[in-house]
Amino acid sequence: MQVSPDQTIWLLGAGAVFTVLLLGLGLASDDLAGGRAAKRRLSRVSPDRTTAAGQATTPLRRSNRDSSIPLIDRLIKSLLPAPDKLRDRLQRTGRDIAISKYLLVSFLVAFLVGLAVHLLLPVSVWVAIAQGISSGAILPHLLVGLLARRRLNGFIELFPDAIDLIVRGLRSGLPVTESIATVGQEMRDPVGIEFRRISDAVRVGANLEEAMWSVARRIDVPEYKYLIITLSIQRETGGNLAETLANLSDLLRKRRQMKLKVKSMSSEARASAWIIGSLPFIMFVLLFLLNASYMISLIQDPRGNLLLGVALAFIATGAGVMWKMVRFEI
Questions:
Q1: C-alpha angle with apex 197: 67 to 202, nearest 5 degrees?
Q2: In the CATH scheme, what is the homologous superfamily, with its name and number, of domain 155-256?
Q3: What residues does 56 pair with on adjacent strands?
Q4: Under a CB-based contact definition with an 8 Å cutoff, are residues 33 and 149 in contact?
Q5: Is the distance from CB of 25 to CB of 142 less than 8 angstroms?
Q6: What gap in Å lies between CA 241 and CA 176, rounded to an integer?
Q7: Residues 90-113: pLDDT tens digits?
Q8: For an engineered disulfide with 109, which of 75, 136, 274, 320 has Cβ 3.0 to 4.6 Å away?
Q9: How far apart are CA 105 and CA 219, in angstroms?
Q10: In angstroms, rounded to a whole number, what is the distance separating the alpha carbons of residues 147 and 199?
Q11: Model confidence over 45-77: pLDDT tens digits?
């Protein structure tokens, strides 16, 4: 099928947008609230959630069904590559989002975007289908990542105050389980609801450490795991738990202050990255509007296509390098 110059322009534009979205998808799927090195260090001291007899413990979740329709539930569990990871990622948003709902929204986004591109833009059906599939795969993923980051940031902001409340409860003579229940009653969400879940799990007979690690599937941040590790070490070695948790609260506050300072100092570099990364696309559009024949000759020539491909690769590489330069592990 012969592709017209206009279709080629839209195809290249769709490819550019797809490249940028893929880059954003890669950045968003990276650790939501910490570096990979910190996650590896924490995994060394994380329990494997097995009993002494070697049997897996019962997870503290009410249902493992991803859809109310049994057939769809079986299809999700058999065809989806990693349903557990996707399920945990959806739970981090704090919303009741089942995998079946997420997939349904993805299909709807793909259909609507593909239909809109096909009806509103002078492109072929295949370009519209490709644009719809890429949008359906990327846009819901980015939205879930945004909701999860917003909730985790809210948790991290309130978490030192929650630890201080536990410390005050311990110093007043309350056991740690009652202090955690107090946090669930006094603190606002998302801290309150997660600590209430811990307290409810302990009331029905679960071990405190097991209940806290079950919440760590939704609150996958180093700050929360530091608390679990602190409680585990104190349970094994003894010591003044109130003083240890007070030191942990002070450490977490200083860690957050350092993160905010790094973000403030790197704001100029991040703004420069956005400006430099968007300039080639802006200039391409402006030059095409001023002299379309000049830009079409670049697109129709195979050497021009090669240069455009190399330019997109360089832009993606440069954006990745600048992103790594302004991101520090604290």
A1: 120
A2: Type II secretion system (T2SS), domain F (1.20.81.30)
A3: 50
A4: yes
A5: yes
A6: 9
A7: 888 888 788 888 888 999 999 998
A8: 136
A9: 24
A10: 25
A11: 555 444 333 333 434 444 565 555 565 556 666
